[in-house]
Design goal:
single chain; alpha/beta; Aminopeptidase; nine-stranded mixed sheet; two-stranded antiparallel sheet; 11 strands; globular
Length: 321
Amino acid sequence: MRYYLFLLIFVLFSCASKPQPEKTNQTSPVSYKVSEENVIKTLSYLASDELEGRDSGSEGIEKASIYIENLLKENGIKPYFKTYRDTLSNYDKTSYNVVGYIEGTDKKLKNEFVIIGAHYDHIGKIAAVNGDNIGNGANDNATGTTAVTEVAKYFAKFKNNKRSILFVFFSAEEKGLLGSKYIAAKLKEQNMDLYFMFNFEMIGVPMKDKGMDFYLTGFGRSNMATKMNEYAGEKLVGYLPIETKYMLFRASDNYPFFTEFEVPAQTVSTFDFENFQFYHQPDDEFELMDTKHMANVISKTIPVLEKMINAPKKEIKLNEK
């Protein structure tokens, strides 16, 4: 009996002393929520007076570039080119797109790419209003830039993207989409197999009584909105007639990818020409942004993007003309 008692104690002690699996604090992708605190941190810095409106080629946008590069590096996101900086050749001041890369996990699908982007430049110093001459560009487009950083952090954390992803922060959008025109032509020349391009633009203030979270520019060009709503299980994205009136499909960084690659390339936005009156004005400030709204819509968009990226075949397609 004494022998068996000793054996039992030995077994119990051995089991107890075995190293246990490490506990993880990672949230399940199913319940993942973007932190409003993180949104505030990034957005408030990018829209601060210190960056002087992030004009392309300025000292202010250089600080923004460094901030974005460090964020990518801290989250283990590699540069796609030799460095994170993609130097523009079509603008007279030295300017950079900032490009991060997460390789796909599927042996076959990783050869197909998705681009998720936003422009991080703005218009710099402008005519003063009440003594303020800095066009901070909080809504335009520090909000979209912030959204891309949060999406990038998600995929860097869970590494559950079957297709490869480029996270592109465009410079010189305000100069005529120069950053996106440059890199779209460059990637096309390299024969990239681009599935779709998804662009964030001005998402800092919610729309009212529109029955959707975002509208999609170029709504009828593809089935992207239909598939997004199908993946979301709700009306996440819809059509806003005024975007057709002002031809917004051609007005942001999605458009060069559409013209170069002839694939779905569209922008989501919540700026509806009624909910924000400080476009290209000094009062486009961080304090006017609804960060809770931003965290919510980015959180809703991430699982939809995940389904878009991981679809077994290219389900998002251009509509027939």
